[in-house]
Specification:
This protein is flat. The protein folds into two domains: 126 residues, Enolase-like, domain 1, CATH 3.30.390; 48 residues, no CATH class. The protein is of the alpha+beta class. The termini are far apart. It is 30% helix and 40% strand. α1 packs across α2. The strands form three sheets. The protein has a four-stranded antiparallel sheet, with no helix packed on it. Strands 3-4-5 form a three-stranded antiparallel sheet. The chain has a two-stranded antiparallel ribbon with strand order 1-2. A hairpin with a 5-residue loop joins β4 and β5.
Amino acid sequence: MAGDLAGLAAKLCTVMAACRIVSKDKENSQQRYKYASSDAVLEKVNPALTEAGLATVCNLEVLDRQTRNTSSGSTWELCTVRARITIIDTTTGASIETEGIGQGYDGGDKSLSKAQTQAKKYAWLLALNISTGEDPEADERTDRAQVPAEICKKCGGPAGYIGDGDFDGKPVKKYFCEECRIETRKPAT
């Protein structure tokens, strides 16, 4: 079996090289972020797998389904799915599995299909180390929110962290009070 796995691994390296990056091709206008669609991922992955002589079988498992009421009184469903993909070398029969978890939230009948699509996409992104060109952890808004607010010296209300800076050659943290519309600085520690 080791020889079979070595051949499978070599084929997967070829696929990984062909799929190393998938550009973000869609935009969520409501929440203002770009993302790589499932179609964009599969348009890269499927031809690379086929050319390398690798077949796949996908099994989907519903992990959870929850009904949620929205603030407007309508009912939506949140669905969580696991996609388990088996990758098979068509020459030797050697195989490995990968998996991904996805969630779908919808007010109609699409929560399950959204969850399945997302789970398959993430299974491929993880299995083949595909980059979408951006670090999802590099979220400046979240980083700013994690720095505790300061007290505004003028009104006594909260002044939110807006970034690091320099004042008289010394590092400072900058805060902004929405109420007073003024920026304050505090020495960085």
